[in-house]
Design goal:
Number of domains: 3
Helix content: 25-40%
Largest sheet: 7 strands, mixed
Strand order of the largest sheet: 10-23-24-25-21-22-11
Strand content: 15-25%
Oligomer: single chain
Radius of gyration: 31 Å
Shape: elongated
CATH topology of the largest domain: Ribosomal Protein L25, Chain P
Structural class: alpha/beta
CATH superfamily of the largest domain: Ribosomal Protein L25, Chain P
Number of strands: 25
Number of helices: 13
Length: 558
RNA sequence: UGCCUUGUAGUAUAAUGGUAGUACGACAGAUUCUGGCUCUGUAUGUCAGGGUUCGAAUCCUUGCAAGGCAACCA
């Protein structure tokens, strides 16, 4: 209820304002958006923003969203990416209305080109790409007309037909729009519409040897699908003039393009080129290496789709350049995981504790699965006189506000007893090897009559019941906020400690039945999920994100 | 030395001529059988100058800064 109110009161972003205005004055009855990935790479956090935006808008305003693959360049695109892209969108929790390919429209697009030629608005140019570039001018100087610019309609029609039929080799001819070589917008200086590529296409096979350029495919595809709001990133702002020009000259359904600023995240890179470099140069293990900002990597790392959607929602959209603090993403991940993760105790760096006055041998204690979830149930944990605690939870000479174990001090062992440290055992080099403690029998959890209050509560596992597992601790991939803007190569700023592997941690036995779709909070350590590298011979857990740590005296965790 | 975008706390985003808000982060405190969660509080902002107006983050103007534009990529 209160959440409803909150949502209604939330102010609109500039696209929502435009849409509400369009709806209000009857320009559209409902809206159609599209998500138009090029199948030449994996989806990343930037795409997630666009997905949440496009699908979110159509959902909010009662329309629908198409998935359309922008597959106009067969030499760089592959079918493999089509499937991964669809998986990622579904995983994020969205469903498209229609699945389209720009290549579905190649016949129609060809007809549009013919229309333009007939109107005297397009011509076949025999210039090489170098010549075209040379004649283009510069942002401050006008370009020059191509010598082929004034061919007759008949000649253009004939040549374009022969381009299509495969008569010419790659690069010998292009179809160009006839606009204005002195235009202040470089994109309006007779942009190339079609080029010859004798290449096999993953959707159309060998049917075509000419392929439309982005500008002659995207807007037209939007129009064919009657997309009302075609939302893209800021770098396409100059393309809008051409987008509108083509729609106007072709006299087709007037889709409109709107641009927002792409989402940049701190401590990572987002460009396909850089991401590819990280993979091919083996700085990461692959596209789904949990340190990558790709959707598949975030999924593997244990991020939930809910948390990514929440992040996109909170961060909002606008038109200015931004570098969003990855801390906000981490906050959203923690916020969701806190609600759903099962609590488990796992000791990473064991220090043995012997409870000298515990004579029962062993017993079972009960602990809640999730204090945030009253219906989460509980589990049983074996307790015995030989335990492991975290080595960093003991200090021989503790500073003032150290709430953990120290000689003579007492702590609560989570869901079990209060213990007091009586003796510190060391080896010949002076390393602490074992702690001798006594427990307070009346302090048993849920039934504590001891009257003793302790400040610290530690996680622990019983030595002889412990299960072992490998744990992979991930941190930010880069040491600096914006690797792309630093001096030199962005790869110089890779965080050498972005992955730390702990080969054997000691886990409470209930984790032996850990499942892949389950999220865990290892008490006081962070959120974890089972990695796909797990096998019968051993479990591997990924740390999704740490717990927030506000302990200052010792901690220097960022 | 052209054209197009954009400038609001550290970050992101509101305020659409009428009290500069919110979230994350930071800091301080309360609570706690997780130094988590939760709760309370504090600090920090309109790029700059000029103009219009009773009143300007908002309108005008001049600067400044950042980003984009010269692929047969998308």
């Amino acid at each position: 209820m209160s959440e409803e109110v909150k949502k209604e009161e939330r102010s609109l972003n500039f696209l929502e304002e435009i849409i509400e205005e369009d709806l209000k004055n009857g320009r559209y009855k409902s809206i159609v958006t599209r998500f138009p990935p090029e199948p030449n790479g994996y989806l990343h956090m930037g795409h997630a923003t666009s997905i949440c935006l496009n699908f979110g808008l159509s959902k909010k305003y009662g329309g629908y969203t198409n998935l359309r693959f922008d597959d106009t360049n067969p030499t760089t695109e592959e079918i493999e990416y089509v499937e991964s892209i669809k998986d990622d969108i579904r995983w994020l929790g969205f469903e498209w209305k229609n699945e389209h390919y720009a290549s579905d429209y190649f016949d129609q697009l060809y007809e549009y080109a013919v229309t333009l030629i007939k109107k005297g608005l397009a011509y076949v140019d025999d210039s090489t790409s170098e010549e075209i570039a040379a004649m283009k001018g510069t942002p401050t100087e006008p370009g020059k007309n191509s010598p082929y610019r004034d061919r007759s309609v008949e000649e253009n029609l004939n040549l374009f037909e022969r381009m299509k039929s495969g008569e010419f080799p790659d690069g010998t001819h292009t179809l160009r729009a006839k606009i204005d070589m002195a235009h202040t917008n470089m994109l309006m200086r007779d942009p190339v519409l079609y080029r010859i590529k004798h290449a096999h296409h993953h959707q159309t096979g060998d049917k075509w040897c000419i392929y439309p350029m982005y500008d002659f495919a995207h807007g037209q595809s939007d129009s064919i699908e009657q997309v009302t709001h075609s939302i893209c990133t800021l770098e396409f702002v100059p393309h809008r003039e051409l987008y509108d020009w083509l729609i106007e000259k072709l006299e087709i359904y007037p889709s409109h393009q709107y641009e927002f600023a792409r989402r940049n995240l701190s401590y990572t890179v987002m460009s396909k080129r850089k991401l590819l470099q990280l993979v091919t140069e083996r700085h990461v293990a692959g596209w789904d290496d949990p340190r990558m900002p790709t959707i598949s990597a975030m999924r593997r790392r244990g991020y939930t789709p809910d948390s990514i959607r929440e992040f996109c929602d909170r961060v909002g959209i606008a038109k200015r350049e931004n570098l969003t603090d990855v801390g906000l993403l981490e906050f959203c991940v923690r916020e969701h995981l806190n609600k759903i993760a099962l609590r488990r105790m796992v000791v990473f760096d064991p220090l043995k504790v012997v409870i000298t006055n515990y004579t029962a041998g062993e017993e079972t204690v009960v602990s809640e699965n999730n204090p945030e979830d009253p219906d989460g149930g509980s589990r049983e944990i074996p307790f015995s006189n030989e335990l492991y605690i975290e080595r960093e939870d003991f200090m021989e000479n503790p500073p003032k506000k150290f709430f953990r174990l120290a000689p003579g001090k007492m702590v609560r062992l989570k869901s079990a007893y209060i213990v007091q440290c009586n003796e510190v055992i060391k080896d010949m080099e002076g390393n602490i090897t074992e702690l001798r403690c006594t427990y307070i029998p009346e302090s048993r959890s849920h039934n504590d009559t001891s009257g003793i209050n302790v400040k610290g509560t530690l996680h622990w596992v019983s030595v002889k019941h412990a299960a072992t597992a490998e744990v992979r601790l991930y941190d930010r991939l880069f040491k600096v906020e914006d690797p792309g803007s630093e001096e030199g190569d962005f790869k110089d700023y890779i965080n050498p400690e972005s992955l730390q592997v702990v080969k054997a941690v000691y886990a409470e036995p209930s984790l032996k039945s850990a499942k892949f779709d389950e999220r865990y909070q290892f008490l006081r350590k962070g959120y974890f999920t089972l990695d796909k590298d797990s096998s019968a011979s051993g479990m591997v857990f990924n740390r999704t994100v740490t717990l927030k740590d506000s302990w200052k005296p010792l901690a220097s965790k960022g």
